[in-house]
Write a structure and sequence with these properties.
The chain is α+β, with helices and mostly antiparallel strands. It folds into three domains: 63 residues, RNA-binding S4 domain (Structural Genomics Hypothetical 15.5 Kd Protein In mrcA-pckA Intergenic Region, Chain A); 96 residues, Pseudouridine synthase, CATH 3.30.2350.10; 108 residues, Pseudouridine synthase (2-Layer Sandwich). The protein is 19% helix and 31% strand. The strands form four sheets. Strands 7, 8, 9, 10, 11, 14, 15, 16 and 17 form a nine-stranded mixed β-sheet that branches. The chain has a four-stranded antiparallel β-sheet with strand order 1-6-3-4. Strands 2-5 form a two-stranded antiparallel sheet.
């Protein structure tokens, strides 16, 4: 099962089934109604019906049953482990690796590797997403934390929800950004023209990205980005929105894609409070070789 948290922010009341159907990816209103009927939706810690009218400030918790697939098997895939104990494991994911299995793709993912390496993983999100608290895109490299038990999973999920987790990314974007600091606050939702993509839309989910320029080149800029929210493809969508798409991005960048590793985006820093010891842990990972090589190449062009 998967647990999701929401806070209703609209001024006008709205049925909970309609709201959740629009907020939860890959679901339908009829499925949401089943979850609610089974008592899996709480508003302010109370069970409600599908016709419950949400009011601004209502806190929603919904538990989504996750189908268990016997096709998800452990695989002996090498892991770049930065930290590990009986509760959590922090790994440096390479570009090109999918975080968890999906329909038609049950092999060679981070979950397959974790299932082989770890004796136990949290079961809150089912076998398909065993241990996974947060995700980064297939072609985004960098740090990710997974959980070995439900206690740690619930605790870290709350930290992500409360925005107390530190996440810093490095990216190379097209164009020269003239100002040193920036804040992008633009709601993100599904692109109605292409449901496989995200875009900035008026009625989308709140999304905030902060960035700092680290280095400027003739045609590119190296930026450091920090997230206040964690929407799907957030950095990629926001940088395209302000006119500086990520280099190498096959979806949101120019048609002539640079490189073979996808977008030049690396999850460089990850910090969180350990669920059990309450000690704040922070990890740093170096840029991948191909990332450094491209930087060297464009520096030599200066």
């Amino acid at each position: 099962m998967e647990i999701k948290y929401f806070v209703y922010q609209e001024e006008e009341p709205q049925r909970i089934d309609k709201y959740l159907a629009s907020e939860i990816e890959e679901t339908t209103r009829s499925l949401v109604q089943i979850y609610i009927k089974d008592g899996n939706a709480l508003v302010n810690d109370k069970v409600v019906k599908a016709n419950y009218l949400l009011e601004k400030g209502d806190e929603i918790k919904i538990t989504i049953p996750d189908p268990i697939s016997n096709d998800v098997l452990p695989q002996n895939i090498p892991l770049d482990i930065y930290y590990e104990d009986s509760d959590v494991i922090v790994v440096n994911k390479p570009s090109g690796m999918v975080v968890h299995p999906a329909v038609g793709n049950y092999q060679d993912t981070l979950v397959n590797a974790l299932m082989y390496h770890c004796q136990d993983l949290s079961g809150i999100n089912g076998v398909i997403r065993a241990g996974i608290v947060h995700r980064i895109d297939k072609d985004t490299s960098g740090l990710l934390v997974a959980c070995k038990n439900d206690f740690s999973h619930k605790n870290l999920s709350e930290q992500f929800f409360n925005k107390t987790v530190s996440r810093i990314y490095y990216a190379i974007v097209y164009g020269v950004i003239n100002h040193n600091l920036g804040r992008i606050e633009a709601p993100i939702g599904r692109d109605i023209q292409n449901r496989q993509q995200m875009t900035v839309v008026e009625n989308g989910k709140n999304a905030v990205t902060n960035f700092k320029v680290l280095e400027r080149f003739k045609k590119y800029t190296l930026v450091e980005l920090s997230l206040e929210t964690g929407r799907t493809h957030q950095i990629r969508v926001h940088m395209k929105y302000i006119g500086f798409p990520l280099v190498g991005d096959p979806i949101y960048g120019p048609k002539n894609v640079i490189g073979e590793h996808g977008q030049f985006l690396h999850a460089k820093t990850l910090g969180f409070t350990h669920p059990r010891t309450k000690k704040f842990l922070q990890f740093e990972s170096p840029l991948p070789d191909y990332f450094e090589e491209f930087l060297k190449e464009i520096r030599n062009e200066e």
